[in-house]
């Protein structure tokens, strides 16, 4: 049976997003349009009338209780409704609307995918994966995005998860370390342990010139080893941030 | 019933005079495959009743479903002409534009072509293309005017009208031929003329004017004319066709006119004078019926009228009797008039016989190859035949002889590789078992049974497990075999031009880039071609492998028959060459044989899509599939882009669809997605514009900006590292264009220099104070050094011509980026900084040198991803005005260090958390540089990293302080277009922001060649659109050419009066750069300056559950 329309005795607010602010022990609310407040805050929307339903400050929007003038003066020091509204808009607690949340989520998701694609390569070809493939793999792996963590950290979390479903590897960093002194050999072993592969190794009168690929996660450690243990004799140079095959190639 | 048995075949193949290699060419849907059907039916391969419905040559599923042919396929037919037997190798070709490459593979192997034209539609674009292709390959065409039945039944023309219509169509076709002829003659006279100026002796004989070239050349043999016997009127669907000689013969007896006279006059403006019974000229003038109408068309019309339209059965019998045709009772009883018509006409005017007769008489045999064609095959138009080595030139006579003797050198050309399911190959086909085989199998099963019994008796014995494992092994092997059977085998589609190719023979495989000259030299110098080499192992410059011929096949449409040898002049298939041939190749017994010239490609692939597997783990399968596809299709390109995308380039939409289907079901066998490929952009800065969007001069509201110093101040960005120990002043400026292009061209060189300096830099020690360049000279080759010098010179010139501002800039270059070889420059204008330039490695004793690499890395990072949409920068110069490291004493870090050490060891403190690396400095600082562990973990990370990020930020800010622009990759677009479609083509170009550079008319033809540039972003779907708009009369070719600045600020919105007037307040349509930038940003998940909802009031206001 189809749904029968029954009139409700409660009239709901539609197309309204409420922004609240507590100031001077009082709660103030303003009525805004949905999906507009974030645009206003990002300075994308400049027309105040497109954001505010009405230039009135309420104590409770859904009940329609308007804030008293003396309260406004007490809390904000002014009684111009529009000015107060603007202040509440920029400082108040925001009720994020559906589209805003969705677009935020999408941007974050894409950002993570782009970061992953940027940081990883296909170990077979040493070429990056296209972002769209990473996105698909992330969706397949049911990766959820957390809105309050920075995308870079989340991307680093995602990489091991994706490794389970596709051949994926962090793009290696190419570094050059110059070691000298008595402990050079000992240090070399330490660095070599952290490196994934050694590209070249030159001993020149007790001085070692070592070019190797390392996982970007180990950069700090290598840096620290070279710095602290050589007591300033070593030199660490970053040759390239990621080793990938460059240029176009015709497949034959 | 098969007419062709192996013995007869062999006999016929040996006699090149009795072999005809022909192909059918036409526009799409003009009836090629139907025509092929009726020819196939004569050999009893399919039933004549099914001819025209079955489309036997369309063996693919999608070909049958779509009703268009997508590949060229060959079939060998036997034809008996007046007691002489002929072997006809018929190649059916596709008519759709997208598969034009298949047509060229077919045409290459043929000596003659049957051009089919639909009499209703007339000459269509592909008809022209087909004729042109036949012309380019020097093969002789004959004409079939098809679908005559449509004139009668659909258009309901009277015989006289139909005659006029037919003459018009014939004229159209001949006009195309004439055009081809004139353009070639004109093309030929131009080089001759230019030559004549060089050679004064020849000049006297060759001095003639333009018209003379045309008049001298005889063109009468080119044209189609029924009285020459190279035109057939046909209806392939109804199975009939005739040339005029049929009626000439018929009426010569009846009228008592000489047959030859009748043959000449039956087509044309002639009529029969009623009383005198004489053939007179001028039928049109005197309003008489031309002979053709009277004798041929009216009879046909009468037959159609009675049989199909009025359905008079008794009359049918009468007609049949008068034509001496016996119709079966079954046909007579049939209610469908069409069937009766087919039965009647099929016997009266059999299409296949008429056509094959014409083919055998009019088209040349393989041994009649012309000298011209032989030369054309052996060397391309750009080089001269005389330039080939003498051994190779001798081969021309071999081509001409077409001998299949034992001692004749073998020359085979492979025009394409086509896939065939392995189990369809004759050697895998199931055949009845012989008695011995049955016995063997029985024995095998008995053994297996016994084993199983033994196993069950001693389940735990070692032997049992061993047996089990062997059983498993067998299973695995079987599986493997199964897989192999499922996989496709590639068959080479080939023709022998000379000699006889035999099974087990060893031949050279010469790749398309093979050059006899160099190969012969190599051979002389004692280089041996390793027989084990395959295509994969070949290095660049090597194009020869050796192969043992494994399998030879006779191509029978959908099927193959094995052969033991193939003599010269035949079209056939070779198996087992997957490893040796990519797309096309030449097989020969001698290395002197040149690689055959490239196929004359009418279309080049232009529709680009990115393909990727639906499931990421299928990547490897996709790559394998793409390789196979690339081998199977001559007109496909697969490019792996820098972004990691696999881009598939195809000739058109239909072709693309076919390729994707093939990938999904045949080659990769995984689900794949195709999408628009990612288009790269570049970011740059420009000189502040002087006019706004409506060409009004910008008035400086900001009076301060007039002052040069203050303006600079606005652009210079001052930035400190997060721990405030270092301050950078940086400014961005657009590079002069010449410098940018120089850097772009010499990217490889710069990379080499950089690599060299890096490898050397490690060995710096106290001797480093010597000139570093002299040291490096020893390692870099002379040539590179010279190149570097010239590059320097060029840069100097470019800079000096760019103005005072760039004075001495070439020696101040600190680094180039991104990736240390890009088109951006980091310029060092730091006062009193003994800087290293790109040309030499680090040296000197400035403290700042330690952080030099961090500084450069920061610049590299900034140029790799600009602030607009994280795309690389291009043509930007970052000028570092100042860079200071705070004085040591100010550099306290009280929280982490004891005050005591601060005074004792100022230099170490200067670099908290960094590497005091330069040994030249170490004398003063190193011994005492003992840092407490706590220092290493600073709140802002290592100092080198801070500098890096500060520089990166500084560069980005400096970039943003200037007017920013987006640069788009541009295709240069070459369009061949017919005059009538010119306007529509311009419209398409305009809509896609293309710019026409120039358009020229081709001499002697009505086609224009238009050169334009088109942004790559706008090129998706460009080819289909232009084809649709111009009805296929324009064919574009796209090649990447350069980067171009889009001259709109991506952040521009109208703000002056005029701009408001011109663009309106919102300027929705105006900003192209903004649109591109937002698209890229959205793709990358960067914040986009865009309102989620444009109009707040116009939202759907109800919540979802109410």
TrEMBL record, chain B:
A GO CC term attached to the entry: cytosol
Pfam families cross-referenced by the UniProt entry: EFG_C, EFG_III, EFL1, GTP_EFTU
Tr-type G domain segment(s): 17-259
Compositionally biased intervals (Basic and acidic residues): 890-905
Superkingdom of the source species: Eukaryota
Annotated spans, Disordered: 889-912
Transmembrane regions: none
Gene3D superfamilies for the chain: 3.30.230.10, 3.30.70.240, Elongation Factor G (Translational Gtpase), domain 3, P-loop containing nucleotide triphosphate hydrolases, Translation factors, Yeast translation eEF2 (G' domain)
Keywords, in A-Z order: Elongation factor, GTP-binding, Hydrolase, Nucleotide-binding, Protein biosynthesis, Ribosome biogenesis
Protein name: Elongation factor-like 1
Organism: Zootermopsis nevadensis (Dampwood termite)
């Amino acid at each position: 049976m189809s749904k029968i329309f029954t009139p409700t005795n409660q009239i709901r607010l539609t197309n309204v997003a409420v922004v609240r602010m507590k100031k001077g022990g009082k709660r103030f609310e303003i009525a805004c349009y949905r999906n507009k407040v974030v645009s206003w805050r990002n300075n994308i929307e400049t027309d105040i009338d497109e954001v505010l339903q009405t230039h009135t400050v309420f104590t409770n929007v859904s009940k329609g209780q308007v804030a008293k003038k003396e309260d406004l003066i007490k809390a904000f020091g002014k009684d111009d409704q529009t000015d107060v509204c603007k202040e509440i808009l920029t400082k108040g607690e925001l009720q994020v609307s559906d589209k805003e949340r969705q677009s935020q989520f999408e941007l974050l998701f894409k950002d993570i995918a782009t970061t992953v694609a940027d940081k990883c390569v296909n170990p077979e070809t040493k070429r990056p994966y296209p972002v769209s493939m990473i996105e698909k793999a992330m969706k397949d792996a049911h990766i959820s995005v957390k809105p309050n963590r920075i995308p870079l950290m989340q991307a680093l979390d995602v990489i091991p998860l994706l490794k389970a479903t596709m051949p994926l590897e962090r793009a290696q960093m190419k570094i050059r370390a110059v070691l000298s002194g008595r402990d050079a050999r000992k240090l070399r072993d330490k660095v070599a342990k952290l490196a994934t592969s050694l590209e070249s190794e030159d001993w020149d009168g007790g001085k070692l010139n070592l070019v190797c690929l390392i996982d970007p996660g180990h950069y700090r450690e290598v840096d620290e080893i070279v710095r602290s243990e050589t007591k300033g004799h070593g030199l660490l140079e970053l040759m390239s941030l990621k080793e990938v095959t460059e240029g176009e190639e015709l497949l034959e | 019933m098969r007419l062709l048995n192996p013995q007869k075949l062999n006999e016929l193949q040996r006699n090149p005079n009795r072999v005809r290699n022909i192909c059918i060419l036409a526009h799409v849907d003009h009836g090629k495959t139907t025509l092929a059907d009726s020819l196939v039916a004569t050999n009893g391969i399919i039933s004549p009743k099914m001819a025209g419905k079955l489309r036997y040559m369309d063996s693919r599923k999608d070909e049958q479903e779509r009703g268009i042919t997508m590949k060229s396929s060959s079939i060998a037919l036997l034809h008996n002409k007046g007691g002489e037997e002929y072997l006809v190798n018929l190649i059916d070709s596709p008519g759709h534009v997208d598969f034009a490459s298949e047509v060229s593979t077919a045409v290459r192997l043929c000596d003659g072509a049957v051009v089919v034209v639909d009499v209703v539609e007339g000459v269509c674009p592909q008809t022209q293309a087909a004729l042109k292709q036949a012309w380019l390959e020097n093969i002789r065409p004959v004409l079939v005017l098809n679908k005559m039945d449509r004139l009668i039944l659909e258009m309901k023309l009277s015989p006289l009208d139909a005659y006029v219509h037919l003459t018009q169509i014939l004229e159209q076709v001949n006009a195309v031929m004439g055009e081809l002829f004139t353009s070639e003659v004109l093309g030929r006279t131009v080089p001759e003329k230019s030559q004549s100026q060089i050679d004064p002796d020849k000049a006297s004989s060759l001095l003639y004017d333009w018209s003379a070239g045309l008049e001298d050349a005889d063109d009468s043999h080119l044209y189609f004319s029924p009285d020459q016997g190279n035109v057939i009127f046909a209806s392939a669907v109804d199975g009939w066709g005739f040339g005029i000689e049929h009626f000439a013969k018929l009426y010569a007896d009846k009228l008592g006119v000489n047959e030859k006279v009748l043959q000449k006059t039956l087509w044309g403006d002639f009529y029969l004078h009623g009383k005198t019974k004489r053939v007179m000229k001028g039928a049109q003038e005197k309003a008489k019926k031309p002979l053709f109408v009277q004798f041929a068309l009216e009879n046909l019309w009468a037959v159609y009228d009675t049989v199909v339209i009025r359905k008079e059965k008794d009359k049918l019998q009468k007609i049949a009797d008068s034509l001496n045709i016996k119709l079966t009772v079954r046909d007579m009883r049939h209610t469908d008039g069409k069937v009766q018509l087919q039965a009647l006409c099929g016997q009266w005017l059999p299409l296949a016989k008429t056509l094959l007769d014409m083919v055998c008489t009019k088209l040349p045999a393989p041994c009649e190859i012309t000298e011209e064609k032989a030369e054309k095959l052996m060397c391309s138009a750009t080089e001269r035949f005389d330039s080939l080595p003498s051994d190779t030139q001798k081969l021309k006579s071999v081509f001409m002889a077409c001998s299949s003797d034992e001692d004749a050198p073998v020359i085979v050309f492979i025009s394409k590789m086509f896939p065939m399911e392995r189990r369809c190959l004759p050697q895998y086909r199931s055949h009845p078992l012989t008695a011995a085989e049955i016995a063997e199998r029985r024995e095998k099963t008995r053994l297996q049974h016994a084993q199983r019994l033994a196993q069950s008796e001693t389940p735990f014995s070692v032997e049992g497990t061993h047996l089990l494992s062997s059983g498993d092994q067998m299973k695995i092997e079987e599986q493997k075999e199964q897989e192999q059977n499922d996989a496709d085998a590639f068959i080479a589609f080939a023709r022998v031009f000379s000699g006889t190719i035999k099974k087990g023979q060893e031949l050279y495989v010469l790749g398309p880039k093979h050059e006899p000259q160099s190969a012969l030299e190599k051979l002389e110098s004692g280089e041996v071609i390793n027989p084990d080499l395959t295509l994969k192992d070949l290095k660049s410059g090597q194009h020869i492998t050796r192969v043992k011929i494994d399998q030879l096949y006779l191509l029978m449409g959908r099927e193959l028959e094995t052969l033991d040898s193939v003599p010269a002049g035949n079209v056939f298939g070779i198996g087992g060459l997957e490893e040796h041939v990519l797309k096309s190749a030449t097989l020969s017994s001698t290395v002197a044989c040149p690689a055959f010239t490239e196929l004359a490609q009418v279309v080049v692939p232009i529709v680009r899509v990115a393909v990727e597997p639906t499931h990421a783990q299928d990547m490897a399968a996709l790559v394998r599939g793409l390789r196979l596809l690339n081998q199977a299709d001559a007109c496909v390109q697969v490019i792996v882009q820098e972004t990691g995308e696999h881009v598939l380039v195809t000739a058109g939409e239909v072709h693309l669809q076919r390729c994707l289907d093939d990938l999904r079901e045949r080659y990769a066998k995984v689900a794949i997605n195709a999408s628009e490929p990612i288009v790269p952009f570049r970011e740059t800065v420009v000189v502040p514009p002087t006019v706004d969007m409506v060409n009004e001069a910008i008035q400086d509201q900001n009076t301060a900006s007039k002052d040069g110093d203050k303006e600079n101040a606005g652009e210079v960005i001052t930035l400190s590292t997060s721990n405030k120990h270092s301050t950078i002043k940086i400014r961005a400026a657009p590079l002069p264009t010449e410098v940018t292009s120089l850097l772009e061209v010499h990217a490889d060189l710069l990379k080499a220099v950089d690599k060299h300096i890096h490898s050397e830099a490690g060995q710096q020690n106290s001797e480093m104070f010597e000139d570093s360049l002299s040291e490096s000279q020893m390692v870099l080759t002379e040539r590179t050094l010279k190149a570097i010098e010239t590059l320097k010179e060029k840069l100097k010139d470019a800079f000096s011509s760019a103005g005072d501002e760039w004075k001495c800039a070439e020696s101040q270059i600190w680094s180039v980026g991104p990736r240390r070889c890009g088109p951006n420059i980091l310029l060092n204008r730091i006062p009193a900084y003994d800087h290293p330039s790109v040309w030499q490695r680090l040296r000197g004793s400035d403290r700042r040198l330690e952080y030099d690499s961090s500084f450069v890395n920061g610049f590299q990072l900034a140029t790799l991803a600009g602030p607009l949409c994280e795309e690389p920068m291009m043509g930007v110069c970052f000028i570092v005005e100042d860079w200071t490291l705070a004085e040591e004493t100010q550099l306290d870090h009280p929280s982490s260090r004891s005050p005591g050490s601060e005074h004792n060891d100022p230099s170490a403190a200067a670099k908290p958390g960094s590497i005091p690396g330069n040994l030249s400095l170490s004398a003063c600082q190193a011994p005492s540089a003992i840092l407490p562990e706590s220092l290493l973990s600073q709140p802002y990370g290592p100092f080198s990293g801070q500098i890096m990020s500060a520089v990166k930020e500084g560069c980005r800010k400096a970039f943003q302080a200037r007017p920013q622009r987006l640069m788009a990759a541009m295709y240069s677009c070459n369009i061949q277009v017919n005059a009538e479609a010119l306007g529509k083509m311009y419209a398409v170009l305009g809509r896609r922001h293309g710019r026409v550079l120039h358009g020229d008319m081709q001499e002697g033809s009505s086609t224009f060649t238009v050169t334009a540039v088109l942004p790559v972003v706008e090129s998706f779907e460009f080819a289909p659109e232009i084809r649709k708009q111009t009805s296929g009369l324009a064919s574009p070719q796209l090649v990447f050419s350069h980067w171009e600045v889009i001259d709109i600020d991506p952040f521009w919105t109208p703000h002056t009066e005029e701009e408001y007037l011109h663009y309106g307040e919102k300027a929705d349509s105006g900003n192209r750069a903004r649109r591109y930038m937002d698209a890229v940003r959205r793709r990358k998940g960067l914040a986009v300056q865009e309102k989620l909802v444009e109009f707040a009031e116009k939202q759907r206001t109800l919540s979802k559950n109410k």
